[in-house]
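#struct-pred
JK: can someone run the complex with ribavirin triphosphate? inputs below
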Amino acid sequence: MAVTRTFSIIKPDATRRNLTGAVTKLLEEAGLRVVASKRIRMSREQAEGFYGVHKERPFFADLVAFMISGPVVVQVLEGENAVQRNRDIMGATNPANADAGTIRKELAESIEANSVHGSDSEENAAIEIAYFFKPEEIVG
Ligand code: RTP
Ligand code: MG
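RT: done, structure tokens with the ligand placed:
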């Protein structure tokens, strides 16, 4: 299996509760390596652009407001089959439906404040990584 990359965000509900380390520990224990990381406050324009695919969804305005409500940590993760591996450790979007041991089951607050984002395909991972990182900021 090839070593690939995915994009992750530790969301404002997790940074607010000082869970950056707790989330990162679960990612690392799942076999993912953090090869880039920065704590930022997303602008409204950045969040609207990032979630552009959801702009017709009823939760879009709330989601954008949530994502700019506090700091986030954007990360590039590397590992074998990184996109799927990260989706597996994240758990279901709604923490109530997530499996035990996943980040969302163990740490998330609600379907919106669900602690992490992870790319859903290799194609989107490349787009999302480039949205937040310059190539020289990623050290594999
Ligand atoms: P993500 O994109 O953040 O990794 O999460 P996901 O694929 O599991 O979920 P997605 O369907 O892409 O939704 C993006 C984010 O929008 C929020 N959401 N709120 N209130 C709601 O019904 C609702 N549904 C989704 C969540 O923060 C979700 O992660
Ligand atoms: Mg998604």
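RT: quick notes.
The longest strand covers residues 72-80.
The two ends are 17 Å apart (CA to CA).
JK: thanks, will look after standup
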